[in-house]
Specification:
2 domains; 18% strand; binds adenosine monophosphate; BirA Bifunctional Protein, domain 2
Amino acid sequence: MAINKPRGTEDLIGVDALTWQYMKDVADSLFVTYGFAPIEVPTFEQTDVFVHGLGTSTDVVRKEMFTALSPDAFAKVSTGGASELKAAQHLSLRPEGTAGVVRASIEHGLVAQGGQPLKVWYAGPMFRAERPQKGRLRQFHQIGVECLGAEDPATDAEVIIMFMRFIEQLGIARDSVRLIINSMGDQACRPAYRDSVSAYMYEHFDELCDECRVRADTNPLRAFDCKNDRCREVMDAAPRISDALCDDCRAHYGQVKAYLDAQGIAYEEDPRLVRGLDYYTRTVFEVQVIDGLGAQNAIGGGGRYDRLVEVSGGRPTPGIGFACGFERLVLAMQACGAELPTPVCPDVFVSVAEPECASKAFSITQELRDNGFVVEADRQGRSLKGQFKLADKLGAAKVVIVGPDELAQGKVKLRDMGSHEEELVDCDALVDRLCELLGCDCGCDCEGEEGCCCGHGHGDGAGDGTKG
Ligand code: AMP
């Protein structure tokens, strides 16, 4: 029986897997400069973590969460005993990363009151039972950051700038995306604003789609996101949050913008930008690709969630974060011709001239790898000619030829795959010679001199460091 991957999932193979790894590497090296450390939380949590964290009226909680059941719980549910399940048995695959990080921060007391904020980043799969289409999957991958414990508008600006730098470092041209920002107000001003939008929607009830009619009551701000043309027209004329912000929120938002202006970060303000999840307060932002991604043009977004920790059972703690989707970032990279990572070619291919040399070749292969070289060898019993062909196909720079005559003198042949020139090298000096020829990766410009900062001897045969 042929088994296919589940609908809405993708296998990350070859360049895709390399690109995911590359993206995490770029994130790791960039985010650390802003003081963010990695965090790993489970891919499933008690369903309540998401229900409290995201809000019962969000689409994600209402219809997009995958339920996870232990065998015991499954047996109960399938015999009609779902109501007997304890809260701890109601599990869901994570649809996003923030709620789990907030749960972990509360459970482990990670945010010291009055201390430095908790700054973490994560990368991993998220799960939403959506209708699959281009750029919209049921299992997709996000890279996200969370900063808990800082209310200062400088933090908002820093997080936004870090996001923009990340996109730039991936090779996504700045002019191919737009950064949209807004303030959603806080507990002081949002409830009244929400009511005014709801009242406005009731005035236009007949013109709204069925879903927005429900939203008029449960989550009116989500109607700004509706893709229905008529709803869009109606919502274009709805009351604007920019006219309804309280003084504190207006001042906070003004300072965020001032920081962005001072750093030359271009943005567009859109008072209709409301992030779909209930927990957002004040600053919200989204990065959209201008051309090439169709309807799923948001590559990432985030915002401030000053109430989330409290509604999740912790002490009042301000927070801000963002998440961006790997799959859409790749589409954006492709759309603007950014370079995607390519497979690593071997530095060296170790070939065997006669079968009796195989064990020495094996030792050499291992020694070179232990010194940091990328090394390949034939494991399918090819002839020497076949091994050269394979080395060429793999893109190896050098081939070491391990033959009986040379070994008798304690030497091997070293062949350059470009010029086809060969030289005899003492087995003991092979690592140093390759270091000289291929360079080390330590970034210095010693050109193979002794005492290089990478710790390798470069030619004296006494080095004990590695290539890189
Ligand atoms: P959200 O948590 O909905 O704000 O999503 C943040 C980012 O994750 C989006 O901008 C997308 O890049 C990505 N994303 C969200 N949902 C999906 C999905 N179903 N498939 C692929 N990427 C997604």
